[in-house]
Write the structure tokens for this entry.
Amino acid sequence: MASLICSVLAMLVLAKTDPNIGNSADLTTRIATAVEIALNHRREHVTRVEVHVTDETADPMDGVNQLGCAIEARLEHRQPIAVVHRAASVDDAVYGAAGRLVRMLEYVLGRTDGNRVES
């Protein structure tokens, strides 16, 4: 299992990959960087982010890769937020989950800050 911990300002990003995925320091760095960039505008509210990328292929013989990315963000003075996205590639799974997390953060932080979130 490859993992990487990146700390930028107050936000800590921990990226982990499933042993069935080609583990490398480059991959975990790419994952952590993608999440950091996505959350950059809300980093003052986020203290820790855990990213888990897993191979969810039920039957390796069917030839269909199903990768999942679960991201949990811990916020200052709030409950953690978790999202999941499934896709055919690691990058698509990570970007999809990061996008969902950004939308969820905007909803939660907008709601608790008293701002109305427009869809």
In short: The two ends are 38 Å apart (CA to CA).
